[in-house]
């Protein structure tokens, strides 16, 4: 049996773009021959479940970089969430730095009143467009609508989390247009009980140190000791996955550092590189 673990954004589909049809066909072909396909994503559960709903694919999801898992036909289970006191310390540091952040919980995504971040969004729009062109501008338009319309806007995320200790905190995510400031924030958020990594353009995420793709995959594979595992990804948060699978595959659009730690390479995400690789290497002729 083969088990294919795949990142979502930048691997299975470009952010905010339509999934290449060959990727959908490849997942179904794997399923039909008795193999498994598992999404391993930094997305929170709601966005991960939305992907399954829109694609109607028969597969499991490891979400929040390993903070939770949703097996097909079962309810989602959370594990390795951020400790509340660690979260409060991180939020206090973010508040002192006046950067844009939001927090993923089991009750949705919470963000400070979005009007507070007008200047941040302007800077991020400029950065995304400079780095990615028209697509970058479209991505930031999509994100801004998401933060405004689909997240819970509260007066103070820090106060809200203090008042709701019952919330399970999956991760903290922040976006910073200035590269030097982004790296400075990575250093300032480096405390015990927190693991920090870059996940997407100008984005840092903070999770429980046990909530990594690698740890989650090792746990998953305990039920399939004879399976051959493949891992597909494009970002820094995919490296722990590459370290534990039998065959690591970087997308052509991954950066040089990510490609350097992989055994093989697939084509561009936007062109259906993942699906093409699966049909070429894993589907029985």
From TrEMBL:
Protein name: Cof-like hydrolase
Gene3D superfamilies: 3.30.1240.10, HAD superfamily/HAD-like
Pfam families: Hydrolase_3 (PF08282)
Organism: Candidatus Enterococcus lowellii
InterPro entries named among the record's database cross-references: HAD-like_sf, HAD-SF_hydro_IIB, HAD_sf
Signal peptide: none
């Amino acid at each position: 049996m083969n088990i294919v673990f795949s990142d979502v954004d930048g691997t299975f589909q470009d952010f905010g773009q339509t999934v290449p049809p060959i990727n959908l066909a490849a997942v179904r072909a794997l399923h039909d021959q008795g193999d498994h396909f598992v999404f391993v994503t930094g997305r929170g559960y709601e966005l991960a479940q939305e992907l399954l709903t829109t694609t109607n694919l028969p597969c499991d999801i490891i979400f929040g970089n390993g903070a939770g898992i949703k097996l097909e036909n079962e309810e989602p289970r959370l594990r390795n969430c951020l400790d509340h006191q660690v979260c409060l310390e991180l939020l206090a540091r973010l508040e002192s730095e006046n950067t844009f952040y939001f927090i993923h919980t089991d009750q949705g995504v919470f963000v400070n009143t979005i009007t507070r971040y007008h200047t941040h969004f302007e800077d991020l729009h400029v950065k995304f467009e400079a780095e990615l062109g028209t697509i970058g501008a479209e991505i930031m338009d999509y994100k801004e609508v998401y933060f405004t319309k689909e997240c819970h806007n509260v007066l103070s995320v820090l106060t809200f989390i203090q008042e709701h200790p019952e919330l399970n905190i999956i991760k903290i995510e922040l976006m910073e247009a200035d590269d030097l400031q982004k790296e400075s924030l990575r250093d300032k958020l480096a405390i015990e009980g927190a693991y920090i990594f870059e996940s997407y353009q100008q984005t840092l995420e903070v999770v429980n140190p046990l909530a990594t793709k690698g740890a989650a995959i090792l746990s998953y594979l305990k039920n399939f000791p004879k399976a051959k595992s493949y891992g597909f990804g494009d970002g820094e948060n995919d490296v722990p996955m590459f370290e534990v699978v039998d065959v690591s595959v970087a997308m052509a659009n991954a950066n040089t550092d990510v490609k350097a730690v992989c055994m093989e390479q697939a084509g561009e995400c936007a062109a259906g590189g993942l699906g093409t690789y699966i049909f070429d290497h894993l589907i029985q002729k």
